[in-house]
C-alpha cells in the first residue's frame, strides 16, 4: 500500500486519548525501547504526552480503503523543545507506532512530518536523547532521516531481555 496516501498525520485532539494510551501502554509495558516505568499510569502517560510545551500528533489510517469513516490511529508522536531557555531552539521528539501496524512506513511518515513541523516551528536542530542501541529499526530509520549518533551512554538502559545496553544520543541540524 502507498503509505503516503493511506496515512493521515494531524495534531491530536481530546478524542484521541484512549487510542494514544493503548499504543503507549503496549510499547511502554514491553519495556525494551523507552525508559518509562512499565507500570506508568494512563494519567501520567497522557500528562507527559500532552505536556504544555508539547505538540502532539497522531497518524491515522483507513481501516478499509473504501470507507473514509473507518480511520483508526496507528501511531503517535510528540515534538517539544529539548531544553528550556537558551536550549529551546533544539527540538526533541518521540515516536510510537502500534505493534500491529509496523513495517508499513508509518514511522518514516511521522519522522518526515516531524522534521517538517520542527522547521515550521523554527527549531534549528533535533536531538534524540535516549535511543536504545538494540532498537535497530529506530536507529536505521533515524539515520535514513539524517540523524547521526553523536554520543554513546554506556550501559544506560536496562533491557528486559538483554541486560545493560548502550544508549545513543542522535542529532541532526535543521538549518
Ligand atoms: C521505531 C518505530 C517508530 C518505526 O515505525 P515503523 O512504522 O515500524 O517504521 P517504518 O515502517 O516506517 O519502517 C522504517 C524502517 O524500519 C524497517 N522495519 C520496520 N519494521 C521492522 C521490523 N519489524 N524488523 C525489521 N525492520 C523493520 C522498515 O523496513 C524500514 O526500513 P527500510 O525502509 O530500510 O526497509 C516503531 O518500530 C516503534 O514504534 N517502535 C517502538 C517505539 C520506539 O522504538 N520508538 C522510537 C524510540 S527512539
Name the descriptors.
5 helices, seven-stranded mixed beta sheet, 175 residues, 36% strand, 29% helix, alpha+beta, binds coenzyme A
Structural topology:
Elements: H1 3-6, E1 7-11, H2 17-30, H3 42-49, E2 55-62, E3 71-81, E4 90-97, H4 106-120, E5 125-132, H5 136-144, E6 148-159, E7 163-173
Parallel strand pairs: 4-5
Antiparallel strand pairs: 1-2, 2-3, 3-4, 5-7, 6-7
The structure holds coenzyme A.
Give, in order, the helices and strands. HEHHEEEHEHEE
Task: List ligands, each type once.
Answer: coenzyme A
- Decide which structural class fits the backbone: alpha+beta
3D shape: globular
Short description:
The chain has five helices and seven strands. It has helices at residues 3-6, 17-30, 42-49, 106-120, 136-144, and strands at residues 7-11, 55-62, 71-81, 90-97, 125-132, 148-159, 163-173.
Structure description:
The protein has 175 residues and is α+β, with helices and mostly antiparallel strands. The protein is 29% helix and 36% strand. It has five helices and seven strands. The protein has a seven-stranded mixed sheet, with helices on both faces. The longest helix has 15 residues, at 106-120.
